[in-house]
Write a structure and sequence with these properties.
alpha/beta; 6 helices
Length: about 160
């Protein structure tokens, strides 16, 4: 059961991926956390290992993906600590990003806000935002903040 402090502390969750707008979402979450005495949490979802007749190959692939996830999260952890003033909470999951995100939100009551940055290409805002503002909107138990992916650092600092 969360402590009283954990219940009142805002936790801003950012999904870590390879998108160029990730840094915008991360900066926004960090600045909001810093100004509200909150914290940042990061979720990295790895692809599931393909079924293989060689169990060892599948396990090796799974381990390599987990190492990549941990390396990427460690890289961003120092950035988050620098910007927000606190170490982030880290979550690594395997599976479909949308499904794993929704599961984490259900399982982790301390998460209070989901922060995503919209894609800047003509392809649309991105698959997670499209899903979470459409068919899966009713499954969210926390507010979703969508940050324009084209915001500059100065713009983010000015609005947070």
């Amino acid at each position: 059961m969360p402590t009283r402090k954990q219940q009142t502390e805002r936790v801003f969750l950012v999904v870590v991926d390879d998108s160029p707008e990730l840094k915008v979402a991360l900066r926004f979450a960090c600045m909001r956390a810093r100004h509200s005495n909150g914290r940042v949490a990061m979720l990295y979802v790895t692809e599931p290992a393909e079924a293989s007749e060689w169990v060892g190959v599948g396990e090796l692939m799974r381990e390599e993906r987990r190492q990549e996830a941990e390396t990427k999260l460690q890289e961003f952890s120092s950035l988050v600590q620098e910007m927000s003033g606190q170490m982030p909470m880290l979550h690594v999951r395997e599976g479909d990003p949308r499904e794993e995100l929704l599961k984490l939100l259900d399982e982790e009551p301390t998460i209070s806000i989901l922060v995503l940055a919209a894609g800047t290409s003509s392809k649309g805002p991105g698959p997670l935002i499209t899903a979470l503002t459409g068919k899966y909107a009713a499954k969210l138990r926390v507010p979703l903040t969508i940050v324009p992916g084209s915001l500059a650092d100065e713009d983010i600092d000015a609005i947070t």
